Amino acid sequence: MTPPPTPVRQPPAGPDLELLLGDPTQTANPLGYAALVAADERGELSTAGERALHDHGLNAEFVPAALGGRLVGADHLMRRLRAVFRRDSALAIGYGLTSLIASVPVWTSGRPAQRARLAELLLAGGRAAACYTELPHGTDFGRAEFAARAQAGRLVLTGRKDLVNNVARADLLLLFARTDDRPGSRSHSHLLLDRSTLPPDRVTFGPRYPTSGVRGCQLGGVAFDNCPVSPDAVLGEAGTGIETVLRGFQVTRSVLPGMVVGSLDTMLRTVTRFALDRRLYGAPVADLPQTRAVLGGAFADLLVADCLATVAVRALHVLPEQAPVLAPAVKYLVPKLLQDAAYQLSVVLGARGYLREGDYAIFQKHLRDLPVVTLAHASSAVCLASIIPSLPVLARQAGDGPGEVSDQLYRWEEPLPALDFAGLQLAARRDDVCADLRAAHRELAGTGEPHRLTGIFVAELDRLRERALALPPRDRTVTAGRPGFALAARYTVLLAAAACVGVWRHAPAASFLAEPTWLVTALTRLADRLGADGGQRWSTGADAERYRRLCAELSDRVADARSLDLADRRLAG
Amino acid sequence: MSDTTISSTPAVAGWLAERVAFYLERPADEIDPDAPLVELGLDSVYALTLCGDIEERYGLVVEQTLPWDYPTVNALAGHLSGVLAGR
Fold first, then answer.
1. Nearest-CA distance A396 → chain B (Å)
2. Cβ distance A453 to A520 under 8 Å?
3. Interface ipTM
């Protein structure tokens, strides 16, 4: 178990990104929706946006405080970047996230000199590119063929990497390579290469790939042909590539989907404005019960996504024993929640959901960007596959809580101990989050819907446990058949439900988050995903009343320019 | 766990071979204790799972990369037996 964590004071945040980027609805704002849609039409990243983020020193968010940056808490990192995702996912990925993804392995396993070099570069506003993908192997990095072979005191690189963001304009390249021909998990390493030191005649950058979403991002390929580099390029120890990926990607796979919650904020805000402005049958569209269910439902789903992402990023700090399953659960389920909500919202918007001009054009941009952004970094299949082997282990550990660090997991505003990259583990050993759900269910006796709904998830947890223990050995790994994948997918829904219950129970009294309204709606919708609630949601006036209450909160937040996530913070517009 | 009938190298190797055989769905006596686990068909993910089994069986907390660094049944057994004897 982790030692009792000491909360660390977050370093000064610098100017608020929200204020810096300004009211996005103002057409005159060079960082507003109109300008960002125009840049997207041109297939460019917003120059004004890149300049603003550069001047803000956004990269410092990705550099640990110990190395001179502002990164202490993954939770702060996730919430701060929402300001950028709220405006333009392409800008967020193209300016910043690419560098974060390339940095995390260096913070996890790099030697001190390598860490210092990257920190210095990022703090000066430079870019790093994460070269993992090889088209024949997708996100299955373990099969990577890009080779680095020792030859006369040098490392000689041969192979291709593709679909790498910013590859042609990065100062540092982090490259995942095979450094040993033997099969096994000690045959890959990361290489950290200074672009300026590479012999130009041995490295070829391919043309940019056009994409359906995040059209401003500059995805490209790079080919190395017998390119000699210094053996010092190996990140940390040779042979630690897979280990570093398994540890470090827990950070990015938790924070990235949590940041993209900002994109759904914009879509929901845009459609809410539309529904309040547009009148049908003598009243605003927003007053139609069906519209209310869509808007209130999307709001509830946004909160679910934030709860799960928040618990996962906090687990990186205080429950590294469970983070190895929470991270892929976030990367699998959060994109699904966001995309399902986005689709429902597009129906309310009607034709304006696909028009590339006019007051609501930002919606279609986010709608196109979302699938590309959420696929980046790990596909849903890879995420589920990495959960499957842990299911029997976690089933055998099934406790009934509460866990020792529950307060720290669910009190989303509480300071956390600094993120310890080296303390991240390779596989999950505990399941405190589901244990907390069991404890919550017992303690909620007499509360009506919260008790009934948590009961549905506890029963599902019992079934999942039985089925996980009965999985044949061959179905416990990446080549598992459908039952293994289905169990892993259902497990992510249980984690989301447990995260919501935890956040609700630990919310400050009398706050919106302490009300059962959002929780009951969220749990009902999650139970629907499991097909586990027998159509309860169709049944009662209480249901309609909850959507009415959620929409009232939503309209208030939109009118007051407050965020729709757990933070409920002031926005620029 | 100082009971050498459980913690001796042959005893640990026997138990490990059974676990490996379970995952591969083959008889334990077909498992070559000197063959790299990965060549027997246990990839990196199985190796992590095997670590979980080791922790449960012996009440140890081990490095989760153990089967990567001791990549055969005999290598793992020799290492674990040493750890168990030292407790």
1. 10
2. yes
3. 0.89
